[in-house]
Specification:
Layout (H helix, E strand, L loop, with lengths): L9 H14 L1 H9 L5 H16 L10 H17 L3
Helix pairs in contact: 1-2, 1-3, 3-4
């Protein structure tokens, strides 16, 4: 059984673990132990990642390099669990 984290693109897994783990460690534990997130977990992940993205916006309104990776991570997560 692959965990939620394992289902994300390999190049984004470390960033996901870093951001979710720093903000909601219990959520990360659950996502690493289960193959599908609950609706509450999906909402929590979106909230945490969205906030993280806001911290990476430059003065021109565009995300910095970390922000671009977070944006890609949000897109990957949404495509996997909200659009199915």
């Amino acid at each position: 059984m692959a965990s939620v984290v394992d289902c994300l693109p390999v190049e984004l897994q470390t960033l996901f673990i870093e951001i979710i783990g720093a903000n909601q460690p219990k959520l990360l534990e659950s996502l690493m132990a289960n193959s599908n997130p609950t609706s509450d977990e999906i909402s929590a992940v979106q909230d945490v990642l969205s906030f993280a993205l806001t911290t990476c916006i430059q003065s021109d309104g565009e995300p910095d390099e970390r922000g671009k990776s977070i944006d890609e991570l949000i897109g990957s997560f949404v495509m996997r669990w909200l659009i199915e």
